[in-house]
Design brief:
about 400 residues; alpha/beta; Rossmann fold; six-stranded parallel β-sheet; four-stranded parallel β-sheet; 12 helices; 13 strands; globular
């Protein structure tokens, strides 16, 4: 029996996995996403283990799957290089990736020109699907939905006098700017304070002190994992009281945020696609599986990757790949099969579905964000679900 081919770029996978050179597999899935933390590597393990399960149970229509996995380190140039290699050298049928919007965005023209479908597990920037590419599909909730539910929730529960601090990362800045626009359009208010920090900046206290001086109802801290953790801790260091609501973008769902921020995570609200505190049987079973197998409580990055894989297998089966040497036709068959997914019910708070056009309405598959609040930080962090909202396909455009 063929084994799965795993190829790593830049950083080796944690553990004692073997890297094996294998003969050409019938179905090839390429992956490019961020593997910099222990949790990032475990997302890779989830993909590998899932595809191994597929192969052990007969593969896709009797054909085995070859998995080619690259680490893009959340760097756009690596993502573009990985997409190019996967499309033209590895000749994959479909690409999974990336985690970071700033990486996924420049990958889109590459995969569109190559005509290889790409399905996104984590990137939320609304700009990605605004490209109009027929080859891109998004499993996570787009930031255009997040900004609406987060803005409405913050205004109704905390107030409309809001300070914003964000970083240059595509998804982080898009979330903050979109929420600023929403608050202006819906409530007629401008930011109490707004600042974009520098790239790779680690000390946010000067911005936080200026935000504090405006006496805001809430403060939006929109960044990547490390930046969000630092900003939350530093917000208390500069004396911003607990009564000022802390609002984060969807990156707050990553387990590193409550774990590393500790007490500073308590009270933080964010919109996501899944909460580990979800009481549905399917969610409780999934949380137990991830905790038992990978030793972590899953945030929505885990759930979105699982939903993606659970959607992809039947789509590949339906595509009926011909393997007759016409790779372009096989890739288009996979694209059309993914586009035909409607009302998939999995771990997400609402159904996920696509349609034929390359528009945001058809390519932003999950339209149901859930509002979550951290009630405890640290290793044994806890959350509560505030509620969910399902939006129409064109909301926020």
């Amino acid at each position: 029996m063929k084994k799965i081919q795993i190829i790593f770029s830049s950083v080796l996978f944690a553990g004692s996995l073997l890297i094996t050179s294998l003969a050409q597999a019938d179905i090839k899935i390429g992956v490019s996403f961020r593997m910099l933390s222990d949790v990032g590597y475990k997302h890779g393990e989830l993909i590998k283990d899932t595809v191994e399960e597929w192969n052990a149970s007969g593969g896709i229509n009797g054909e085995k799957v070859d998995l080619i996995l690259y680490n893009d380190e959340c760097k756009s140039e690596k993502g573009v290089a990985n997409a190019t290699k996967l499309a033209y050298q590895d000749k994959v049928h479909v690409i999974i990736g990336s985690s970071c919007s700033s990486v996924t965005m420049p990958m889109v023209p590459v995969i569109t020109k190559a005509g290889v479908p790409q399905i996104i597990p984590h990137s939320t920037s609304s700009k990605i699907t605004l490209t109009g590419s027929e080859y891109i599909f998004r499993v996570p909730v787009s930031s255009r939905f997040y900004k609406i539910v987060q803005g409405k929730y913050t205004a109704e529960n905390s107030g409309t006098k809001i300070a914003y601090i964000y970083v240059p990362d595509q998804a982080s800045s898009d979330f903050a700017k979109s929420m600023i626009k929403f608050m202006k359009d819906e409530y007629g208010v401008d930011p109490a304070y707004e600042a974009q920090a520098g790239e790779k900046e680690t000390d946010f206290r000067s911005y936080l002190l200026k935000a504090k001086a405006t006496n805001p109802d809430a403060i939006v801290l929109s960044g990547l994992v490390d930046e969000t953790v630092r900003a939350l801790k530093q917000s208390y260091e500069v004396g911003i009281p607990k009564s000022v609501a802390r609002v984060a973008n969807s990156v707050a769902s990553k387990v590193e945020v409550p774990t590393n921020a500790g007490k500073a995570a308590v009270g933080v609200t964010y919109a996501a696609a899944f909460a580990a505190s979800d009481k549905r049987p399917i969610a409780k079973k999934f949380v137990k599986k991830i905790k038992d197998k990978y030793g972590v409580v899953p945030g929505h990055d885990f759930s979105q990757m699982q939903d993606l894989l659970d959607m992809l297998r039947p789509a590949l089966e339906k595509a009926q790949i011909k393997f007759n040497g016409d790779l372009a036709s096989d890739r288009n068959a996979v694209r059309d099969s993914i586009a035909g997914i409607t009302n998939f019910t999995g771990l997400a708070s609402g159904p996920i579905g696509f349609c034929a056009a390359g528009s945001p309405e058809c390519r932003d598959g999950n339209k149901t964000p859930v509002m979550i609040e951290y009630t405890k930080g640290g290793k044994n962090w806890k959350t509560k679900v505030a509620g969910t909202v399902t939006f129409n396909p064109s909301a926020g455009l």
